[in-house]
Design goal:
Layout (H helix, E strand, L loop, with lengths): L22 H7 L19 H7 L1 E6 L4 E3 L7 E7 L2 E4 L18 H9 L13 H8 L8 H4 L5 E4 L4 E2 L1 H6 L6 E4 L4 E7 H10 L1 H14 L1 H6 L2 H4 L3 H10 L1 E6 L3 H11 L2 H7 L2 E3 L7 E16 L2 E8 L4 E2 L1 H9 L10 E14 H8 L5 H7 L10 E2 L4 H7 L3 H7 L8 E5 L8 H9 L7 E7 L2 E5 L18 E3 L5 E3 L9 H5 L6 E4 L12 E2 L6 E2 L5 E2 L8 E4 L12 H5 L5 E4 L4 H8 L2
Antiparallel strand pairs: 1-8, 2-7, 3-6, 3-8, 4-5, 4-7, 9-14, 10-14, 11-12, 11-13, 11-14, 12-15, 16-18, 16-26, 17-18, 19-20, 21-25, 22-23, 23-24
Helix pairs in contact: 3-19, 7-8
Length: about 600
């Protein structure tokens, strides 16, 4: 605690990513590319270049054929080859070859036994240590019988100085390829994504390098995913990829400013704080494609604005206007809508001249009909598809409500129909039974005319709670759920403080007698707590050890979320908020 008696939480650099990255090793790393080309003077005093390398990186020495990253895993780090060679497998490999099981879901009998055997002690957990965790989790995973497994597979070797995994790390998205060490003694520098973000912010060389790698290795696959580009010949796609412009809008750490805005401003004022990507009435210089994040589509309505749609990853805007301008060059059409970044957004812009020359001539008749003046706002924009009955039930502010609360980020948002809910709390009891007597959500939240957005983790498409976690304890499972590894959580509260929806709670952990667990000693600053084995953790206000807790979507149970299965009135649903058709169907049952 500080002099005022306030508990000081552990910060991001209180525990380095790797204690073996000593100042001497940092000096060596600074002599290697790309760090040798970076200007330390560009970095702020609180985020020095040497400090980022000291605290946000770790050194890995690998055996031949050891798996570094696996296709499909969600990434939190990028990797720089220091010595040796890494081999990228450009084609998919079977699950069993990559050391994956079919999942560790409990069977029905195990689930029933767990529910019947529920402990009555709140948050009874062992006090694990960081060192125990490393011994458990850092076991080598080797790719066996490599010549046979890789026979006929396309591969590519990465040499010293080459970076990989940065696209998945920055986008918190699945790895697109498996990478293995090609020889014994291969050395890697692993850079956790927070450090990579800071390097990009203050080192133009790193930003340019990452954007060039995306242009070479990731951009074409994103473009090919669009219907209007999928049919183009390869040379046309290459020309588009070479000319595509990258834009970023908003801040990666938007959650803090958003929480302040919630307390101080009205919805219309918050709308004006969202970074403008395109203003209604502006001329479109190109086709806008969302690379990451969410974009609000709105238009002027009376004295304010009305949200009409939102765009997510891989969707685009502006094809209608470009088509109409190409048909009648003398009657230029401007944008009918404004586009704003909801938090932080990466967008790509394909120049209008290329859209007119390469894309428009290959549109089908059906696609062209949708671009005529009577058509919808865009070929691939996603209008919020709610029926008139649904709009009548919730009122005209339904879209603004979900957008204003940032609920569109949710991959498994818990919605409760309060007209059906009898407040029996069976959902809470079902959750508690599935989690050893400890419910993982609070049955309360924002409401609009009979619908409640309940305080349960939404397993966001862009889980920004993962941004500040210093140990990577909060992460995304292969199957997509955002979960917390209790063994690596140090209780720093970063994820809880930075969740815009207040869906992560800090709890005191207790021993088998139900007593709060306390540390052995504090450091000189009374900031970091050590147990008898030297592990770092955090304190609650009364000095007990804390951990973060939240809904894990019952990812290890058959049958899905216990809260949904426990509701006797069909009043509760877990819904991907991008699936607006399902939302409309649920509202109009």
């Amino acid at each position: 605690m500080d002099a005022s008696g306030q508990t000081i939480r552990p910060a991001r650099w209180d525990e380095p990513f790797d204690a073996d990255v000593t100042p001497e090793r940092v000096e060596r790393i600074l002599t290697l590319p790309p760090f040798d080309r970076m200007d330390p003077q560009r970095f702020p005093r609180h985020l020095p270049l040497a400090g980022i390398l000291r605290n946000d990186t770790r050194l890995l020495t690998l055996k031949q054929d050891q798996i570094i990253v696996r296709e499909g895993d969600y990434g939190n780090s990028a990797f720089l080859v220091l010595e040796g060679t890494a081999r990228v497998v450009l084609e998919s490999l079977p699950r069993e070859v990559l050391g994956r099981s079919e999942g560790a879901k409990k069977g029905w009998f195990q689930s029933i036994a767990r529910a019947l055997g529920t402990r009555r002690l709140r948050e009874q957990r062992p006090h694990h240590t960081i060192r125990q965790r490393e011994a458990d989790e850092d076991e080598l995973t080797l790719l066996h019988d490599v010549p046979r497994v890789l026979e006929g597979k396309r591969t590519n070797d990465l040499q010293p100085g080459e970076l990989f995994g940065e696209i998945a790390a920055l986008g918190r998205s699945p790895r697109t390829a498996t990478v293995i060490a090609a020889q014994n003694g291969t050395q890697m520098l692993e850079i956790r994504w927070q450090g990579l973000r800071d390097l990009m912010s203050y080192a133009p060389e790193m930003k340019a390098h990452i954007e060039q790698r995306f242009r070479e290795h990731g951009l074409r696959s994103l473009l090919r995913a669009l219907d209007i580009i999928r049919r183009l010949p390869q040379e046309a796609v290459d020309e588009i990829a070479a000319a595509t412009e990258f834009e970023r809008h908003g801040r990666m750490d938007w959650y803090g400013s958003y929480q302040q805005l919630l307390d101080k401003t009205t919805p219309s004022e918050r709308l004006r704080t969202e970074p403008m990507i395109l203003q209604q009435g502006d001329y479109l210089n190109g086709l806008i494609i969302v690379r990451g994040g969410f974009v609000r589509v709105s238009r002027k309505y009376h004295l304010g604005e009305q949200t009409t749609a939102y765009l997510g990853k891989g969707q685009c805007y502006g094809l209608k206007e470009i088509y109409q301008n190409a048909q009648k060059p003398g009657e230029l059409v401007t944008s009918e809508h404004s586009l704003r970044a909801v938090g932080y957004v990466d967008v790509l812009v394909i120049p209008t001249v290329l859209v007119e020359r390469l894309i428009l001539p290959r549109l089908t008749a059906a696609e062209i009909r949708k671009l005529e003046p009577q058509g919808s706002i865009s070929k691939t924009a996603r209008p919020v598809k709610l029926s008139e009955d649904a709009r009548e039930k919730l009122g005209p502010g339904i879209v603004e409500f979900f957008m204003d609360k940032r609920t569109i980020n949710g991959g498994a948002t818990m919605l409760i129909d309060l007209d059906r809910c009898t407040r029996c709390d069976d959902c809470v009891r079902g959750c508690a039974s599935a989690h050893d007597g400890n419910p993982r959500f609070i049955r309360q939240g924002d409401q609009l005319e009979g619908i409640q957005i309940t305080q349960a983790c939404m397993h966001c498409h862009d889980p920004i709670c993962m941004i500040p976690c210093p140990t990577g304890a909060i992460h995304r499972e292969e199957s997509g759920e955002v979960v917390i590894n209790d063994r690596t959580c140090i209780g720093c509260s970063s994820c809880a403080n930075n969740c815009p929806y207040n869906n992560i709670q800090m709890v005191e952990i207790r021993d088998e007698r139900g007593m709060p667990q306390f540390p052995v000693k504090l450091d000189a600053k009374q900031r970091i707590v050590f147990d008898s084995q030297g592990s770092m953790t955090s304190l609650s206000a009364d000095g007990a050890v804390q951990r973060a807790t939240k809904c894990d979507l019952c990812h290890d149970l058959l049958g899905g979320p216990a809260c949904v299965r426990a509701c006797p009135h069909d009043a509760l649903i877990r819904l991907d908020m991008q699936e607006t058709d399902k939302l409309a169907a649920w509202l109009n049952r």
